[in-house]
Amino acid sequence: MSSQFTLYTHSSGPNGWKIVYILKALGLSYDPIYLDFNKGEQKGPEHVSKNPNGRIPTLVDNSTGFTLWESGAIITYLVDKYDKEHKISAASPEDKYKQLQWLFFQSSGQG
To answer: Which of 19, 26, 37, 66 sits at 20 to 30 Å (Cα–Cα) from 74?
Structure first.
């Protein structure tokens, strides 16, 4: 059985690992592809065709082919689409906006 997602990432740095935590918390399967930054693989044509800014993370939803990049956008997609029981996400509209507030704070203020 193939994995639900393909995650283009790097072995160090926080952004790819943020996605791994969310995938694992939701019980979603994924295949990681670790890009070698020393070789410039993140800027190579295969990856840039999926992510025009040539950075990580990049997530491909293998069930639909939908591709998304930027950790905050990926996290929002995963919880909106795959956390219907609200295991790790807010249920009420007000709490969802509070959740987004902290996500944006973390993305812009901490990296």
So the answer is: 37
